[in-house]
Design a protein that fits this description.
By secondary structure, the protein is an alpha/beta fold. The chain has helices at 10-17, 25-28, 47-58, 82-88, 92-95, 121-134, 143-153, 199-203, 242-252, 278-294, and strands spanning 3-4, 22-23, 36-41, 65-71, 89-91, 100-105, 135-141, 157-172, 186-197, 208-210, 212-213, 221-224, 229-232. The protein is globular. The mean pLDDT is 92. Transfers an acetyl group from acetyl-CoA to L-homoserine, forming acetyl-L-homoserine.
Length: 301
């Protein structure tokens, strides 16, 4: 089944070129089926890029999926046209009386601030608490994962001595878990962050478990035992060139950052990076949709 996204969304043109099966609300309403309703809280500065990345991964499913985007009311992004938000986004006030099958909370460029220092943290807390009663399962990405671990499970983050940036190998330690069904025992994932989570606290937390291990990057996948929360510490949704563009942007800002590790072929910045995590990303998202959302969500939301 296709993914149902708004008419005119810029991501549509890109996804259609990639032969992603799409439909709009008019066509979807003609099908006698209840789609999965997914809400995306997009906190990333380049919202249009993140929309495309997430919609691409959500499309690889036999289920019909209906998407709503929301942005924060308490903080206005400076990197996206106001007209784009007005046309394609809702706010939490618009949706808080609704129920959703799934929620995705993206990363955000605020990880070097403590959570309570973030302008929209009170709104984030309200949304996360609301999701406990109104959403079947939530997928948290990068800073969104750190926020969930801090708020729901009292697991804090700490500053790294330097930024971790690159593509790192991960080994499954829970290979029979349905969330990682089909993913290779050894797989790759991009990471880009200045902070780490207290992984020892996660290991000893009775409500959480870790699904993989990486010597350099730490675990990528953490989940709650009740399936309500899946935390992705990296950016498995990234395109092949996203880390390169981040690196160039950091250099342009005069930041002292290292070249992304294990990323450019032969460690040569002139070589085009290859996407070595695409299949794992597709499998992870489709497994979450199937086993953590569709199989346990009520028919009548």
């Amino acid at each position: 089944m296709p993914i149902n996204i708004p008419k005119g969304l810029p991501a549509r043109t890109i996804l259609e070129r990639e032969n992603i099966f799409l439909m709009d609300k008019d066509r979807a309403s003609a099908q006698d089926i209840r789609p999965l309703k997914i809400l995306i809280l997009n906190l990333m500065p380049e919202k249009e890029r993140t929309e495309t990345q997430l919609l691409r991964l959500l499309s690889n499913s036999a289920l019909q999926i209906s998407i709503d985007f929301i942005h924060t009311e308490s903080y206005q992004s400076r990197n996206v046209p106001k007209s784009h938000l007005e046309q394609f986004y809702l706010t939490f006030s618009d949706v808080k009386q609704k129920h959703y099958d799934g929620l995705i909370i993206t990363g955000a460029p605020v990880e070097q601030m403590h959570f309570e220092q973030v302008d929209y943290w009170p709104e984030m807390v309200e949304i996360m608490d609301w999701a406990d009663q109104h959403v079947t399962s939530t997928l948290h990405i990068c800073w969104g994962a750190q926020a969930a671990l801090y708020h729901h499970f009292q697991v804090d983050k700490f500053d790294r001595s330097n930024k971790i940036s690159g593509v790192y190998s991960h080994q499954l330690i829970e290979p029979t878990n349905k969330l990682v069904r089909g993913i290779n025992d050894l797989f790759f994932a991009p990471h880009s962050r200045y902070t780490d989570t207290d992984f020892q606290a996660i290991e000893h937390h009775p409500e959480l478990f870790i699904l993989d291990h990486s010597e350099q990057a730490g675990p990528l996948l953490i989940a709650s035992r009740n399936k309500k929360h899946v935390m992705i510490t990296g950016h498995i949704e990234y395109d092949a060139n996203t880390l390169a563009e981040e690196y160039q942007r950091d250099l342009a800002k005069g930041l002292n950052v290292n070249m992304p590790e294990n990323y450019y072929p032969n460690e040569n910045i002139n070589n085009t990076p290859l996407n070595r995590w695409r299949s794992s990303a597709y499998l992870l998202f489709s497994n979450w949709l199937n086993y953590y959302v569709y199989q346990v969500t009520p028919y009548n939301l």
